[in-house]
Specification:
By secondary structure, the protein is α/β, with parallel strands linked by helices. It contains 13 helices and 9 strands. The protein has a 9-stranded mixed sheet, with helices on both faces. The longest helix is centred in the last third of the chain and has 18 residues, at about 200-220.
């Protein structure tokens, strides 16, 4: 499966973990990365650096996308983005993220899945820019939303750009969604992070990023674990048999709250999990593969 990642990598560590997991997945061929939300050039350079650390093919197209939200809401910037890396300016990236999305799917109609793991600003802009974008995309896999009956929140990716999320979910794209109520069932804790840290150069950096995120969350009173929000829908792309998928109609209100009505004619598929422990094990295994170079060398040789 050919995958293009649209990401706000650099803030929450789960984007970087998803990138590592995809690199370590033989079922998935990474064909490009676009970044969204805030300093997207810095985010793109972080993605390039992670691939460089892992000796990945540096000809992979990476492009910075939309910095400002469609809704006009201010960007939430944590301040630690890129702090673990020196001389990020040497990392070559393009500045045409939305155009890269359009070009990639137009050149390969019906062959590229987009994994959208940040606010949906770039995807909404691509829908506006080219009427053929909907039909050219094979599938849009989204991390976003919260469909709990009680205690649900306005999930970050939707809340950060409500107008973009509403535009995307009103389209005719084939959408699969891994929501917060699913991803919160899975936790990476110190045992798994220590395994990742010892697996190789990429794993060491990812573990350091996890610890940065933990310290950031501890300052806000959160505990030391990480729900791998973005790796979960990424894993579905590689191993759909580990999940359920219920057809539904999805509505996003003007505050970013989402709700779903399960219906056999629903245009969106909402993922469920059969075995949370197995999901965690599989995510970690694939990150370890990537860090150890199991998939990296093969993919670096693709031309």
């Amino acid at each position: 499966m050919r995958v293009l990642i649209d990401t706000d990598i650099g803030t929450d560590v789960d984007d970087a973990l998803a990138l590592g997991m995809i690199v370590g997945s033989p079922e998935l061929e990474l064909v490009g990365i676009t970044t969204v939300y805030g300093d997207t050039r810095l985010r793109a350079q972080i993605a390039r650096r992670l691939l460089r650390i892992n000796h990945y093919d540096l000809s992979l197209p990476i492009a910075a996308g939309m910095q400002q939200t469609r809704s006009g809401k201010d960007v939430c910037w944590s301040g630690h983005e890129g702090n673990l890396f020196h001389n990020l300016d040497i990392e070559t990236v393009a500045d045409d993220g939305v155009d890269l999305l359009l070009r990639m799917v137009a050149a390969n109609p019906g062959e590229v899945d987009i994994l959208a793991i940040g606010p949906l600003t770039n995807i909404a802009a691509a829908l506006d820019a080219d009427l053929d974008f909907e039909s050219n995309v094979r599938r849009l896999v989204v991390m976003g939303g919260d469909f709990r009956a009680e205690g649900r929140i306005a999930e970050h990716n939707f809340e950060s750009d409500v107008a973009a999320a509403q535009r995307v979910f009103s389209s005719r794209l084939d959408i699969v969604i891994g929501s917060l109520d699913l991803t919160l069932k899975i936790r990476l804790e110190s045992l798994e992070i220590d395994q990742i840290a010892k697996s190789g150069p990429l794993g060491a950096v990812l573990a350091d990023e996890v610890r940065v995120w933990w310290r950031f969350n501890e300052a806000r009173g959160d505990t030391r674990f990480n729900s791998p929000h973005d790796p979960v829908p990424a894993l579905w792309m590689a191993k759909p048999d580990l999940f359920t998928a219920a057809p539904a109609h999805v509505h996003i209100d003007n505050y970013g709250f989402s709700r779903a009505q399960i219906h056999r004619d629903g245009p969106v598929r909402i993922l469920g999990v059969r075995d949370p422990h197995l999901i965690k094990t599989e995510i970690v295994r694939r990150i370890l593969n990537a860090s150890a170079g199991v998939e990296t060398q093969r993919k670096a040789g693709r031309q």
